[in-house]
Automatic annotation (TrEMBL):
The keyword Transferase does not apply. One of its GO terms (cellular component) is plasma membrane. It is found in: Cell membrane. The chain crosses the membrane at residues 12-36, 70-89, 96-123, 149-175, 196-218, 259-278. Keywords: Membrane, Transmembrane, Transmembrane helix, Transport. It is a multi-pass membrane protein. It comes from Puniceibacterium antarcticum. PROSITE patterns: ABC_TM1. The keyword Transport applies. This is ABC transporter permease. GO terms for biological process: transmembrane transport. It holds the Pfam family BPD_transp_1. CDD domains: TM_PBP2 (cd06261). Belongs to the binding-protein-dependent transport system permease family.
Length: 290
C-alpha cells in the first residue's frame, strides 16, 4: 500500500520561508553584492572582485582582532563550563530551595546586554563604582579605561557573571534526567563522589554540555554590546574584537566594500567552528547510543 503524500502542507511553511527570505537571505545577498564592489558615494558602485577579501586576508588588523576574539572565547569557555557544572552539582535537587536557586540563576539571563554593560561600566569606575572604589582604596591600580589587564579582567568577569547561569541550568537539567538507579548502584559499590561524577554524571550530561559549549562559543564570539559599552574597544585596541572592528569599519569609516567582505568572513568562521562543535556533538551521541 502506497503512502499518501499531501504536498499542501508546504503552504503552512510558506509564511516562514517568506519571513526568512526578507530577514536573512535578501540582506545576505546584499552584503555579498557589496563585498565585490567599491563605491565613492552618490550610490555609484564599481566592480572590485575579490580585492577586499585579499586585502583583509593580508591585513594585520583583522588577524589581531581575530586573535583577541579567539583568546576571549577560549577564556570564557574555560571558566564558565567548569564553573557552571560545579554550580549545577551543588544545587538542591528537590523542594523549595531547588525552585529558589533556579529562579536566582535565571535572573542574570533576563538582563539586556546593554544594561549589563552599563551596570559594569558604573560598577568598575574608580570614582563612583563600588568595585573600582574598593580596589583603589586597597591600593590596587585598577582602571579599565587605561589598563589592558583591568579591561580584560572586567569583561571576563562581567561575561562570567552574566552567562555562567546558562551553563549551570543546562547542566542541572541534564543531571535531573539521570535515573536514580545509577546512583543506587554506585552507592552499593561504594563509589566515591569523584567516581560518580566521572563515570555516571559526566557521560550522561555530555550532550547537554556540548549544546552549552556551542551556545556560549557563538555568543562570546559574536559579543559586541557589552565590551562596546564598557571599554569601547579600548584602551587602544586591547578589547577591539571582531564585532567592534567590523562596526568601526562599516559605520565609522563607511568602507562598505571591506566591511561587507569582513562580515562574510566573520560569518564563515562562526559557521565553520559551530559545524565542528555540532559534528563532535553528533558523534558523541552516536557513541553513547542516544
Amino acid at each position: 500500500m502506497e503512502k499518501t503524500v499531501n504536498q499542501k502542507a508546504w503552504f503552512l511553511v510558506l509564511p516562514v520561508l517568506v519571513l526568512v527570505a526578507f530577514s536573512a537571505v535578501i540582506p545576505l545577498m546584499t552584503v555579498v553584492n557589496y563585498s565585490v564592489q567599491d563605491t565613492f558615494g552618490n550610490n555609484q558602485f564599481f566592480w572590485a572582485g575579490l580585492e577586499w577579501f585579499d586585502e583583509l586576508l593580508h591585513s594585520d588588523r583583522m588577524w589581531n582582532a581575530l586573535g583577541r576574539q579567539m583568546v576571549f572565547s577560549a577564556i570564557i569557555l574555560a571558566i564558565e563550563v567548569p564553573l557552571g557544572i560545579f554550580v549545577a552539582l551543588n544545587m538542591p535537587k528537590k523542594g523549595f530551595w531547588a525552585s529558589f536557586c533556579l529562579v536566582l540563576m535565571s535572573l542574570p539571563l533576563l538582563i539586556p546586554w546593554n544594561v549589563v554593560g552599563t551596570i559594569w561600566q558604573i560598577f568598575g569606575r574608580v570614582d563612583i563604582g563600588l568595585l573600582g572604589y574598593t580596589l583603589d582604596a586597597m591600593g590596587i591600580d585598577y582602571n579599565y579605561t587605561q589598563g589592558f589587564i583591568a579591561a580584560w579582567t572586567t569583561l571576563i568577569v562581567m561575561d562570567v557573571w552574566h552567562w555562567t547561569s546558562l551553563v549551570a541550568l543546562l547542566a542541572y537539567a541534564g543531571l535531573q534526567s539521570i535515573p536514580d538507579a545509577y546512583y543506587q548502584a554506585a552507592k552499593i559499590d561504594q563509589a566515591s563522589r569523584w567516581a560518580v561524577f566521572r563515570y555516571i554524571e559526566l557521560p550522561k550530561i555530555t550532550g547537554v554540555l556540548m549544546i552549552a559549549i556551542l551556545l556560549r562559543f557563538m555568543d562570546s564570539f559574536m559579543i559586541y554590546t557589552e565590551p562596546f559599552v564598557v571599554t569601547g574597544g579600548g584602551p587602544g585596541n586591547a578589547t577591539t574584537f571582531l564585532s567592534i572592528d567590523l562596526v568601526k569599519m562599516a559605520l565609522g569609516q563607511f568602507d562598505l566594500g571591506p566591511a561587507a567582505a569582513f562580515s562574510l568572513m566573520y560569518f564563515l568562521v562562526i559557521l565553520l567552528i559551530s559545524w565542528v562543535f555540532y559534528t563532535v556533538m553528533v558523534n558523541l551521541e552516536k557513541r553513547d547510543g542516544v
